Structure to design on (214 residues):
């Protein structure tokens, strides 16, 4: 059983999430909080496995709360679920200890699979968010004019290309981006075609020249 604490300032959102998650026999919502401060007050007693965390909340937001949880309760995993995909929110949340970042338009089945993945120790990001998470680690990238070919790639294909640059294999990419290995293979095929590259090795060299393995 995966014990979950819901942290969101909207009561209706919490109730909807609770109803949805508890339709899965593996999941149990053991508590709710309307802001980060209330969440921290409950953690010692509840000891959830997962904190499903909103970002913008009164009193104490999700970024500050994520940092506090990572410092005080390192065994509790934070999965951000929010409507906001701002670069700063994504990068700060992941840098400060979140194990995943999803948007609220995520399909219910995908959310439940994401919770299972984070519970098992995987780190994941929603489509198009991988690049945002890298921003504080690679501030100089934005100042480099990217090759025009990159404009042909979708946000998810860019995510895959960056992971290829880091040396990740298809299984590792699949785990990082919460995809199947077959889906990753399809993305790699599309990348090779759109960038006019012969094989994965060429793609890795091309990506590494752009992203430096980050």
């Amino acid at each position: 059983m995966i014990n979950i604490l819901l942290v969101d300032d909207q009561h209706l959102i919490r109730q909807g999430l609770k109803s949805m998650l508890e339709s899965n026999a593996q999941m149990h919502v053991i508590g709710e909080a309307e802001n980060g401060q209330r969440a921290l007050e409950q953690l010692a007693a509840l000891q959830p496995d997962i904190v499903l965390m909103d970002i913008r909340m009164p009193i104490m937001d999700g970024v500050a709360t994520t940092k506090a949880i990572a410092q005080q309760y390192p065994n509790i995993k934070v999965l951000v679920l929010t409507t906001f995909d701002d670069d700063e929110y994504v990068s700060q949340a992941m840098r400060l200890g979140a194990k995943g970042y999803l948007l609220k338009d995520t399909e219910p089945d995908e959310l439940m699979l994401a919770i299972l993945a984070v519970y098992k120790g995987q780190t994941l990001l929603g489509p198009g968010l991988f690049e945002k998470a890298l921003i504080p680690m690679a501030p100089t990238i934005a100042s480099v004019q990217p090759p025009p070919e990159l404009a042909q790639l979708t946000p998810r294909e860019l995510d895959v290309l960056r992971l290829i640059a880091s040396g990740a294999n298809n299984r590792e990419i699949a785990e990082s981006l919460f995809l199947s290995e077959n889906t990753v293979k399809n993305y790699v095929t599309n990348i090779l075609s759109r960038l006019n590259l012969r094989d994965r090795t060429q793609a890795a060299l091309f990506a590494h020249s752009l992203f430096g393995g980050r």
Notes: Strands lie at 2-7, 27-33, 50-53, 77-82, 100-103, 124-125. The chain is about 50% helix and 15% strand.
